[in-house]
Specification:
This protein is α/β, with parallel strands linked by helices. The chain has a five-stranded parallel sheet with strand order 2-7-1-8-9, sandwiched between helices. A two-stranded antiparallel ribbon has the order 3-4. Strands 5-6 form a two-stranded antiparallel sheet. A hairpin with a 5-residue loop joins strand 3 (45-46) and strand 4. The protein has six helices and nine strands; from the N terminus they run E-H-E-E-E-H-E-E-E-H-E-H-H-E-H. The radius of gyration is 17 Å and the shape is globular. The protein has one domain (2-202): P-loop containing nucleotide triphosphate hydrolases (Rossmann fold, 3-Layer(aba) Sandwich).
């Protein structure tokens, strides 16, 4: 089963997926993130202020992402160099992904890719209010990615929000499950984990 999980930047989808993964054995779930498929900075679109825009579908190697999902589905393991968001303080790892009964693919643009949408058996959208998302984005980019505050705020206003309105929000009508994460995703976690356990039982 291939499960697509998306949501706006700062919605908490990465935290949700990490918590979900912890509920299962390593051989039961494989998680593949679009974050590790970003093109290098010199391949990104430059805006009118000379700032690289990483919040566009073209920022990501969509073909490689879909190819690797298909390889996992066919039972092949794949390797990918970790993307560290141009953080000079971080050292990228060589990531290895093994096929599993449940393959979770996550990212901003998984629902706007028609070829990828055809591969998904279940579509999940993690949602939160705009003010909650921007606070989470600031905390994440300042701490985890070492971005200056002014840069974080500029990107949110001119890159993140326009992208959300055009490439992410419209697909909320096409998903199977919407998880409210304004305060907690606990209820959504219980629903989805129960569904996964039932699926795994049906395969034994």
């Amino acid at each position: 089963m291939i499960v697509g999980i998306s949501g706006g930047s700062g919605s908490g989808k990465t935290s949700f997926i990490k918590a979900l993964k912890d509920l299962f054995e390593v051989d039961q779930i494989c998680i593949l993130s679009q974050d590790d498929y970003y093109f290098p900075r010199d391949h990104q679109v430059i805006d009118d202020k000379g700032i690289s825009n990483f919040d566009l579908p073209s920022s990501i190697d969509q073909n490689a992402f879909v190819r690797d999902i298909q390889l996992l589905k066919e039972g092949h393991s794949i390797t990918r160099k970790e993307y560290v968001f141009n953080n000079n303080l971080a050292t990228p790892r060589q990531l290895v992904f093994h096929p599993a009964p449940i393959i979770i693919v996550e990212g901003l643009f998984i629902f706007s890719n028609e070829e990828l949408m055809k591969l998904l058996d279940l579509k999940v959208f993690v949602e939160a209010r705009d003010n909650v998302k921007v606070i989470r984005r600031i905390k994440r980019d300042r701490i985890e990615r070492n971005y200056p505050l002014d840069d974080v705020l500029y990107r949110y206003q001119y890159h993140v929000m326009p992208t959300f309105e055009k490439y992410i929000k419209p697909f909320i009508q096409e998903v199977d499950i919407i998880i409210n994460n304004n305060k907690s995703f606990d209820v959504g976690m219980k629903v989805l984990s129960a569904y996964f356990r039932e699926y795994l039982r049906s395969k034994t």
